[in-house]
Amino acid sequence: MLEVGQVTGTHGLNGVIQVYSHTRPAIGIAGYSYWWIGKNTHACRRFHVVRCWQHGKRILACLSGIDTVEDAEALRGWKIWVSREDVPVDNDEYLWCDLIGCSVADAKRGLLGKVVRLEEYGAQDILIVRTPPDAGEQGEWMIPFTQQIIGKVDLSAKRIEVCLPPGMEACFTSRY
C-alpha cells in the first residue's frame, strides 16, 4: 500500500470529503478508482471513488457508502492509501517511498549516507541524504535527482550511485 493523501474534512451535507493529496499534481489522486482509508494499513477500509475533483485549491471526493456529513466526518484525519499495483511506474521512474532508506555513494567521496526524505524544488526533486553516524562530519546533503548526477539506482540493493560535480560541497549542511 502507498499513502497518497489524508481526509482533512467535509464539504456540504451529502458525504463529500475534503482531501489533502500527496500526489503531484494534487489532482493525480483522482486517477485511482479505489482508496483504502483508515488510521493505518492494518485498520482500513476499501472505498470506490465515485467522483473526485478540484474545487479551488481543495480536492473533493464522493465515496460509495459515504452519504452523510456524519459518515464523512468519521473519516476526518484518516490516511488514504492505494494498492501498489495500481501505481504505474516506468523503468526510469521511482516512487519516493522506495528511495527513502537507500544508501547513497559517490565514486570520489565514497558513502555519503542514507536518503531520509525527498523535497520538491521546481525543476527537480532533491534527495536529502543524512551522513552515517560514524562519519567525520555529521550533516545532510541536498542532491538533485537528475540524470547528470544520479548514476545508478538499485532498489533491490537499496543503493544509489551518484557522481557529484565539483562545487557540490555547497549542498552539504553541517550539523552544529
What would you report as the Rg, rounded to the nearest angstrom? Answer: 20 Å
Coarse structural class:
mainly beta
Using the 3D structure, state the CATH architecture of the largest domain.
Beta Barrel
Approximate shape: elongated
Number of helices: 2
Strand order of the largest sheet: 11-12-7-8-9-10-13
| Average pLDDT for all residues | 93
Q: Estimate the helix proportion, in percent.
A: under 10%
Order of helices and strands: EEEEEHEHEEEEEEE
C-alpha end-to-end distance? 37 Å
Unreliable spans: none
Which tags fit this structure?
mainly beta, Elongation Factor Tu (Ef-tu), domain 3, SH3 type barrels, six-stranded antiparallel barrel, 2 helices, elongated
Q: Nutshell version of this structure?
A:
This protein is mainly beta.
Topology:
Blueprint: E1 2-11, E2 16-21, E3 34-40, E4 43-55, E5 58-63, H1 69-73, E6 79-82, H2 96-99, E7 103-106, E8 110-121, E9 124-130, E10 139-144, E11 150-154, E12 159-162, E13 172-174
Parallel strand pairs: 7-12
Antiparallel strand pairs: 1-2, 1-6, 2-5, 3-4, 3-6, 4-5, 7-8, 8-9, 9-10, 10-13, 11-12
3D structure, described in words:
It contains 2 helices and 13 strands; from the N terminus they run βββββαβαβββββββ. With 176 residues, it is mainly beta. It folds into 2 domains: 85 residues, Elongation Factor Tu (Ef-tu), domain 3; 79 residues, PRC-barrel domain (SH3 type barrels). The strands form 2 sheets. The protein has a 7-stranded mixed sheet with strand order 11-12-7-8-9-10-13, with no helix packed on it. A hairpin with a 2-residue loop joins β3 and β4.
